[in-house]
What we know:
Organism: Mola mola (Ocean sunfish)
Low-confidence stretches: 18-27, 110-116, 351-356, 365-376, 466-494, 530-557
GO cellular component, one term: membrane
Bound molecules: adenosine-5'-triphosphate
Shape: elongated
Number of helices: 15
GO molecular function: ceramide kinase activity
Domain DAGKc: 132-283
Number of strands: 18
Strand content: 15-25%
Helix content: 25-40%
CATH architecture of the domain at 290-518 and 532-557: Sandwich
Mean pLDDT: 79
CATH topology of the domain at 290-518 and 532-557: Tumour Suppressor Smad4
Radius of gyration: 28 Å
Protein name: DAGKc domain-containing protein
Structural class: alpha+beta
CATH class of the domain at 290-518 and 532-557: Mainly Beta
Amino acid sequence: MFRAAIVEAAARSCGSKVAGASRGGNPRTRWWTPEVKGAVKLKKETYRSWLACGTPEAADSYRQAKQSAARVVTEAKTRVWEEFGEAMEQDFQSAPKKFWQTVRRLRRGKRNPVHTVFGVGGELLTSTESIVRPRSLLVYINPYGGKRQGRRVYEQKVAPLFHRAHISADVIVTERANHARDHLKTEAELDKYDGVVCVGGDGMFSEILHGLVTRTQADSGVDQDQPDAELVPCSLHIGIIPAGSTDCICFATVGTNDPVTSALHIIVGDSQPMDVCSVHHNNSFLRYSVSLLGYGFYGDVLSDSERNRWQGPARYDLSGVKTFLSHNYYEGTVSFLPAESNKGDPRDELKLNGKPVCLVCSQQGSVLKEYNFRHGSRGWKVIHGKFLAINAANMSCACPRSPKGLSPSAHLADGNTDLILVRKCSRLDFFRHLLRHTNKDDQFDHSFVEVHRVRRFRFQPRHHELASLEDLSEGLKKSGFSPICVTQTTCNYSTTHSSWTCDGEILPHADIQVSVHRQLIRLFARGIEEEQQQQRSVFEDLGPHLALEPSLHWTVD
Ligand SMILES: Nc1ncnc2c1ncn2[C@@H]1O[C@H](COP(=O)(O)OP(=O)(O)OP(=O)(O)O)[C@@H](O)[C@H]1O
């Protein structure tokens, strides 16, 4: 049963195809002569060079080679069938046997299964050179993530698969927070590996991300403190074996939180590019983000829940309700540089058109650049207002409890992030907006919600900033709980500042600049292909680390 499950998962991950005898399955095919082989090889080579350069001459060469190969194959087949007919005529006694032998051989050839792997552009990879399967991995295990099962999950479910796939793995079980990040930044001999694997939750993934990106920039002499710096993409792939309490990044890139599925994506060398946002304050680097940057509502939920860690996982429920009832809004200015290409809009239905990967994300940089050149680039836009929430979703942020996520059609690797502005509105309207996270209705179809696909943005709070996070928490403590308005539909209360949550970490500054770096990292994954069906409560897993207990079930509006 275990074997059947693995084979089924592998077939789902890699695809499979039934090919004929002519696909090399049957070496005894008599018409496959050296002449035919040479003609078909030439056809393939000219096809590849036509794809590479796309000139009319290359197209012409391909057309000629194709015609020539077809002619040679037809001649060879005709010759072989003539020989077959002559042999049948010459020996009447063995003719029936020969006839049925030939029929059986041809039938067997047609049922010969060939497993196939798709590249990042959705093309079928046919040669072993084009399929990059890892041979050597560096694995970090957080033994304290989630239910503390990281080590067991790796040893029992993942290591045996790596062993069978002849993948060697150097395993480091972390001894403290930031152990993996610091090791990657300084000590790890990255040349020895084809990829880095993280066994843990989103916090652990963030460590690996920071370690790998920082190391790559340091090795390439890029100063990541500069907001305008062009960051160098990481050469090593990252694999995520989910073993945390929040595994949103894994869910959003693989489509499920299952260690065996993730291990298979690593083994077959699937490759999913992913954008990374860099966050700066006054020209100094703060953090990288791949999923959600949230100010206002989500920032407040996370800040409050961090102050109440002693409450355990229930703290997310309590902080969610408390923050909702507080109904705080924040005044400030959002400036943003809209996305260059209109090939994707945050309100599009995300269509994969039957391809295994997203067409927008698989476009090469040059294609987008050409498109932008023709359609022009738009300049910075500025919006001033009072906001209940400002969210930048770099991916859909889908999770089991919010199957479509905060921005259902956000792309993983298009070089943009979806900036969602929720303006001051009544508590009831905000409630209706939150409920949209759990159903399939248009998230942005409310007059007080707007969404922009952007390459960069900046937020400046109205009042000048407090010096540090400590000041911020002090300020929040002093401000206490805002009054709950029973009779009013809107609340006129506003604290000065909220704070940003950046993939589940609180940032020390509210005034931030964010730039999206297109395809800075690559995961051993291939994006979500199928819709997830489960629906649960509003806040749970909505953004990384915003898990609420399923006790809070609200119905849809
Ligand atoms: N050995 C360790 N001891 C303590 N903390 C660690 C250790 N290794 C990693 N960490 C830290 O634990 C934090 C949480 O890890 P992880 O994301 O794997 O689990 P999680 O249960 O999903 O956590 P959370 O719900 O807080 O995100 C990470 O931020 C990481 O820096």
